[in-house]
Specification:
Layout (H helix, E strand, L loop, with lengths): L6 H16 L1 E5 L5 E5 L4 H4 L19 H6 L12 E7 L3 H13 L2 E7 L4 E6 L4 H6 L4 E6 L36 H5 L2 H5 L9 E6 L19 E2 L10 H4 L6 H10 L15 E6 L9 H13 L4 E4 L17 H16 L3 E5 L12 E2 L11 E2 L15 E8 L6 E3 L12 E4 L3 E8 L2 E6 L2 H18 L5 H10 L18 H4 L6 H4 L10 E4 L3 E3 L4 E6 L6 E8 L2 E9 L6 E5 L10 E7 L5 E9 L6 E4 L5 E3 L1 E8 L5 E7 L23 E2 L6 E7 L5 E8 L2 E11 L2 E2 L6 E6 L43 H8 L12 E3 L2 E3 L17 H16 L13
Parallel strand pairs: 7-9, 7-10, 8-9, 10-11, 11-14, 14-16, 20-26, 28-36, 31-33
Antiparallel strand pairs: 1-2, 3-5, 3-6, 4-5, 12-13, 14-15, 17-18, 19-21, 21-24, 22-23, 22-25, 25-26, 27-29, 29-33, 30-32, 30-34, 34-35, 34-36, 37-38
Protein name: Subtilase family protein
Keywords: Hydrolase, Membrane, Protease, Serine protease, Signal, Transmembrane, Transmembrane helix
Pfam families: Peptidase_S8
Length: 845
């Protein structure tokens, strides 16, 4: 965004100023006093209510019946003396807001902020009877807590994260060339950019963990006058420090996908000419409570934003139920805020979540509340996951580029059902901007959190093309342009054609602008600049003649290495997978796709690394039965290799197995407990001088599958073949397993090219025979902690959140072992820099 504002931008600013003046808040100065304060209005003005104005509501929001909220059984009990925040819902207008304020103060509370436009007041009280007393007041529809743990907002402000401006020479050897990432090709974003890159008059809010506006791809893109922090009691704070990131890179990553600059380096966003605004709605512990979200949406409506991206779900409930008293009021207050913003022409785009949950079939939740002690509770189809499940919100699931075929497929980590998915977009191996992690300013994250900003960026392009389009009209344009999913040949159960999972289909940015296929120029997309000789790498190429053969090759000087030939589909696209041929010398290497009939070609720089063979698992053997409790997984690898062992429960169904007991966290060197909340746990260790390794897990009775990867000189191997076994109660310790049919072969240690950059060792539970300190010292990683519930990090990179045992509400969760190891490495860097990555496996963030 240029420093000078266009006339249209000046008009927008004037409109925003008027809207801001009309957004009225009631700010309590303690029990017994409450004053009306307009956003941007001084406390002196608050003393004179006659000087304030109230904006009329755009539409009348429905009120939740108080009888429903009060009759439901509560799973939370207030504690006398502990501060708690509450959502108080009543009628709209100043008279109703004043009445609610009076009732709040009379019940021993104080008003934090009120929104007369929607009849919502956020209050705080230490009285256990507060909600009951206020609910008895005439005109109050519902009252309920916004969380389950005592409020500590603002008590200890977190130190800010290092900003990108502190890195003078960023190093990102695996970052694809700008515009050559797979998601750019798969969504036909390059074709869209040949028509438009958007408009600075369109504003996209990033409701997230804060945005680093010093990042080279975001500098000048974030408007500080439109940015806000809402993560202290849901009270708007426009100071820059309030919306900068403090513990998580998540918001900066999301912002880059939406609107990173097209400047010849780094990445390019879907809408690189749009204006961004930071809306910080995550606190330092990673929680996103209703009052934060309500504050953000009311701010977006008051300042005239066009689109807001929401890559999170609202804590502390994995599904908010209107018939449960601990959730009804918070859900209704949140719904009102989103309805109001939609009425002000703000389009909300939201991630569906990463649990793989079917919200139509779900009956039990044992993972909530995530800010306290989870306990089983019944859930029904009436329970929703805000914001993705709210009316008028465009819900987004994730897709991935399969490493084996290169096809773009539905990512099964996505939640679905319950009106949570309207469209899918790339969400696995998504490169984008981050605050510094060492000398790196970019990282690949996975999850529906990464899918949603692709759609938000596309919505910004549509808004630039159709300035008068309403949110509903933009949704229709995007979903009508979506590409239908297809099934692999012979597939019997295919989520790619299930509308409850896929919505309208795959995002097609160019089609949403009316651009037909095939594209007029060829493009190529990859998931990483690093290509391995032993592992498949997906390739997406567009702009070819339908039906023609496309040769995919490596070129180094005069040398040409043919990798594969694929046939362009009816859209002129190629989705394939390659293994690199080993190259020699230091000359640059290029991956090229060339059409045999059209002559169209696209290329991108890559680097080739010698691959590492998969390690072997020697125990347990396939079909073995082992006793419940502590089990040992052992095998062979290259001497000194770092191994990452992935344990999954193949028969675990998150929709019915929610009551599976939650294991305690493991300490360094202790067995890693199997994590039922994700259906996945990871332990790591080091192979000894002979190549032998072992790790331990704690498991209850069930069927399991285990696989292992190794990392040698910074190169990660493919996964070993999965070994299925069963943990059975009553099997004596030491019961022999079936003898293996073949002897495992120790893996030889390969020689990696000197140019390969070592990857940081993942942080996870060791659970193994090798001391954690030795592992950390050997690989330069911080002290490891176990993968366990209520901690932040990916499945293979779990770090306990400082001062908290709860999971974060911002997620980037993986769908494959490759992604898990990659994100683990990123988390290790972040922790080494003193930052906690606010990501958790199978959580939306």
């Amino acid at each position: 965004m240029s420093a000078a504002l266009s006339p249209a931008r000046w008009r927008r600013r004037a409109t925003q100023a008027a809207a801001t003046a009309s957004l009225v808040c009631l700010v309590g100065l303690g029990a017994g006093s409450a004053h009306a304060v307009g956003v941007g209005t001084s406390l002196d003005d608050a003393a004179n209510p006659a000087r304030l104005t109230v904006s009329a509501p755009v539409d009348q929001v429905a009120r939740a019946g108080s009888s429903v909220a009060r009759a439901a059984a509560s799973t939370w009990t207030p504690i006398e003396g502990e501060p708690m925040n509450y959502a108080v819902n009543g009628g709209t207008g100043t008279a109703a807001a004043t009445s609610a304020s009076t009732a709040i103060v009379a019940a021993g509370g104080r008003v934090l902020v009120a929104y007369p436009e929607i009849g919502v007041t956020i209050a705080q009280s230490t009285r256990a009877a507060f909600a009951t007393d206020v609910a008895a007041t005439a005109g109050i529809d519902s009252v309920g807590p916004t969380r389950t743990r005592a409020v500590t907002d603002g008590a200890t402000p977190p130190a800010p994260m290092p900003l990108a401006e502190t890195v003078s020479s960023p190093v990102d050897p695996d970052l694809p060339e700008e515009g050559d990432a797979w998601d750019v090709a798969a969504t036909r974003t390059a074709a869209a950019h040949r028509v438009t890159t958007g408009s600075a008059d369109v504003v996209v809010g990033i409701a997230d963990s804060g945005v680093d506006d010093t990042h080279p791809d975001l500098a000048g893109r974030v408007d500080p006058a439109l940015s806000v922090g809402c993560s202290v009691n849901g009270v708007a704070d426009s100071n820059r420090a309030a919306w900068l990131p403090d513990t998580s890179p998540h918001g900066t990553h999301v912002a880059g996908t939406v609107g990173a600059a097209q400047n010849g380096s780094g990445i390019v966003g879907v809408a690189p000419s749009t204006t961004l605004a930071a809306i910080k709605i995550g606190n330092a512990d990673g929680f996103i409570y209703p009052e934060y979200v309500i504050c953000g949406m009311m701010w977006a409506a008051a300042t005239g934003m066009d689109v807001v991206n929401h890559s999170y779900f609202v804590d502390p409930w994995l599904g908010w139920c209107p018939d449960q008293a601990s959730q009804a009021a918070g859900l209704e207050a949140t719904r009102r805020a989103f309805a109001y913003a939609t009425g002000k022409n703000v389009l909300s785009v939201a991630a569906s979540g990463n649990y793989g949950l079917d919200f139509d079939a779900r009956t039990l939740d044992s993972q909530s509340p995530d800010d306290g002690k989870p306990s089983p509770r019944p859930v029904t189809g009436a329970c929703t996951m805000p914001p993705a499940g709210l009316p008028g919100v465009l819900g987004v699931g994730a897709s991935e580029s399969e490493s084996s075929s290169g096809e773009t497929r539905y990512a099964t980590l996505s939640n679905y059902g319950g009106d949570t998915v309207d469209i899918v977009a790339p969400g696995i191996s998504i490169w984008s901007s981050t605050p510094p992690t060492g000398e790196s300013l970019y990282a690949p994250f996975p999850g529906t959190s990464m899918a949603s900003p692709h759609v938000a960026g596309a919505a910004a392009l549509v808004k630039a093309q159709h300035p008068n389009a309403s949110p509903a009209e933009i949704i229709t344009i995007l979903t009508d342009a979506a590409r239908a999913g297809t099934c692999p040949v012979g597939a019997s159960d295919c989520p790619d054609v299930d509308p409850r999972r896929m919505g309208a289909g795959h995002l097609d940015v160019a089609a949403s602008l009316g651009i037909t296929t095939p594209d007029t120029a060829a493009t190529i997309g990859i998931t990483s600049r690093k290509l391995s000789t032993t592992e498949n790498s997906p390739v997406v190429a567009t702009g070819f003649r339908p039906g023609e053969s496309v040769d995919v090759r490596l070129t180094q000087g005069e040398a040409v290495h043919h990798l594969t030939t694929a046939v362009a589909d009816a859209r002129g696209e190629v989705h394939t997978s390659v293994r690199a041929s080993l190259t020699t010398g230091t000359a640059p290497v290029t991956l090229t796709a060339v059409g045999s009939a059209s002559g169209a070609s696209a290329d991108t720089p890559v680097r080739v690394v010698a691959g590492v063979a998969a390690p072997a698992i020697t125990s347990p053997t396939a079909g073995a039965q082992v006793p419940v409790g502590v089990i040992t997984i052992s095998g062979t690898a290259a001497p000194g290799a770092a191994v990452s062992v992935l344990l999954t429960k193949p028969t675990w169904d998150p929709n019915v197995d929610g009551a599976f007991p939650q294991p305690p966290a493991a300490g360094p060197g202790e067995p890693v407990p199997f994590d039922p909340s994700t259906g996945i746990s990871t332990a790591r260790g080091l192979a000894d001088a002979t190549g032998a390794w072992s790790v331990t897990f704690t498991v209850p009775a069930n069927a399991y599958s285990v696989s292992v990867r190794q990392r040698v000189d910074g190169v990660v191997s493919p996964a070993s073949p999965a070994v299925a076994f069963e943990a059975v109660a009553g099997v004596p310790t030491g019961t022999p397993s079936p003898e293996p049919t073949t002897e495992p072969t120790p893996t030889a240690e390969p020689t990696s090219p000197a140019t390969d950059t070592p990857t940081p060792q993942p942080t996870a539970g060791t659970g193994g025979s090798t001391a954690d300190s030795a592992d950390a010292a050997s690989h330069g990683s911080p002290t490891a902690t176990a993968t366990a519930p209520h901690s932040t990090g990916s499945s293979d990179a779990t770090a306990t959140r400082p001062g908290s045992d709860a999971r974060a509400s911002l997620a980037a969760s993986g769908a494959s072992d490759v992604v898990i190891l990659a994100i683990a490495a990123i988390a290790g860097l972040l922790l080494a820099a003193g930052a906690a990555i606010v990501t958790a496996a199978r959580r939306v963030r």
